[in-house]
From TrEMBL, chain A:
Residues annotated as transmembrane: 32-57, 97-119, 128-149, 161-182, 203-225, 259-283
Protein name: Carbohydrate ABC transporter permease
Membrane-topology descriptor: Multi-pass membrane protein
Pfam families cross-referenced by the UniProt entry: BPD_transp_1 (PF00528)
From TrEMBL, chain B:
Keyword Chloroplast set for record: no
Sequence ranges assigned to domain ABC transmembrane type-1 in this UniProt record: 91-304
Organism the protein comes from: Cryobacterium adonitolivorans
Chain segments annotated as transmembrane: 32-54, 95-117, 129-149, 177-200, 231-251, 288-308
The entry's keywords: Cell membrane, Membrane, Transmembrane, Transmembrane helix, Transport
Any one Gene Ontology cellular component term annotated for this protein: plasma membrane
A Pfam match: BPD_transp_1
GO biological process: transmembrane transport
Name of this protein: Sugar ABC transporter permease
CDD domains: TM_PBP2
PROSITE patterns: ABC_TM1 (PS50928)
Ranges for region Disordered: 1-23
Subcellular location: Cell membrane
Amino acid sequence: MTSTLSRAALSTPASGRRTVRRRPPRIRVTRALYFVGFLVVTAAIMLPVIIIVLTAFKPAAEVNAFPPTLTPTHWTLDNFRAIFSELPFARLIGNSFVFAGGVTLFALVFDSLAAYALARLDFRGSKVLLIVIIASLMIPFQATLIPIYQLISDLGWVNTFAGLILPRAADAFGIFFLRQFFLSLPRDLDNAARIDGASEFRVFWSVVLPNAIPALLTLGIFTFVNNWNDLLWPLVFTTESDHGTITSGLTLLTGPGGIIPQGVMMAGALIAVLPLAILFLLVQRRFIESVASSGLK
Amino acid sequence: MTTSSLQRRRPWRPPGQLGGRRPLNDGFRRRAVVVGFLAPALIILTAFVGWPMLSALRLSFTDASGFGQETWVGLENYARVFTDSSILQAIGNTALYAVLFTPVALIAALVLALAVNSPQLPFRGFFRTTLFLPFIVSLAVAAFAWSYLLDPQIGLLNYWLQAVGIRIGNVLEDPALAMPTVVLVAVWKSFGFYMVIFLAGLQDIPKSLYEAASLDGANGWRRFTNVTFPMLSNTMAFVVVIALIAALQAFDQIYVLTGGGPYRSTQTIVMEIYQSGFKDLELGFASALSYVLLVATLLLSLVQFLFFGRRGEDTSS
């Protein structure tokens, strides 16, 4: 899908550039107006992001000033200093990386193993198993949260990474998604390795997985972002604020009855978004593709 | 997943057989390999999806409170779900949320998808990337930004609206405006997601259809109503269902912005599950409510499955 997207995006301006010169000025003006108009619309839509970035650099006096302004008159890093000195903020960032990264890593390994069995090892009951897995996709995690909490609590895993990560270490969507991808890989690849005497695990690890890196990346990004941004899950499984993630920790300190000022809050928000924004800009095509495929596959 | 694809496949043979091992040993080894591949994921899914689903069902018929004793209370919890006026209000609020969220998010997504798909627009890649950015912002963080923008004293948006004569006051304290506001935050966060799905759908429409329509003298609007919209109907039906399912789970921005208020006007099912289950420790009741959510989601998924069942098979074979 992305290949068609990007091809379309690339080819139109290229072929357009040549014809634009010959186009009557009226069409160029229309295009320019369309561009400017849409730029304004986009800027309006992006206002919340813009306000996060600009407010994060505003001194407290300007944040609370009336009339409010968009841009800071004096740029300052005080808000960033405050959030690290007044909150266990570095801890929260670390927790987020361990939680979202841990879930992603485990889920990729466990999902791809199961997906491989479903795609490549014909065993009795594989069809039934696949149907059960697809059916379990439809269960919203909010509906099973209470028994999961009881289980985690019985294991003594509340406020631990094990409690946060393990329940999500495998995921029905990931298994289904990777199975579909493995099926699309030519079987001759792994059969060749099998004839050479490779064990099934070796075929999986050295032949199939390296060819599935695009799908693994796509799924990995999707899983990482979803978990990084999740609020309810860390809210339930971490009861002490310094065990939370950046999303839940910020919420506890800024939500109803929150104690930190707006400017500091926006600095926190900016730091919470930054890793995802960088990840997104690095691999935006794959990222957008992952969304399109989560919808259509 | 179809039988035809299974039959076409060569039967899987373990490497041992090629080495000339005994068939009996083979069957065992083969099963061990399958179990080895499946076990980690299946253990996790059984422990944290399958078992909790059954456990929640059992809990929903008890008065469990998290402290030892649980008494079987039959359908009492369910009776409370459907008679307690405050719970009915939460269910009604969730329905209202879904009814507001779905059309607004999807129309915004479709309009923007058409705009960034139009060859008339220069730098489409830039716009596509930028408009997708809100999707990677968490709902909680989006809620911070919006609450600051809408703040009645120091909010920039509130100030600008007042400058053009629109007084909205404190939207989060206003029982009539709190719900539209939490919906707006969700629409802002998620339209990019639906936009990308629409874009994929738009890319699949054959160019020849537009050319034919143009030859027949169809203008832009007619091309949309006669070509784009009908060709997008599958995508549309799919997106409507997933948007409704997402709306049923509304929680994050409500927790951050209103806590369910004012006067419970933004209290949703998941907010109620969280409060009754984790604050009031009425586990039995919260489980009954969870099952209401579960059944509603399953019904929507069933609709989707009936719509897309055949298509799903096509892509997998």
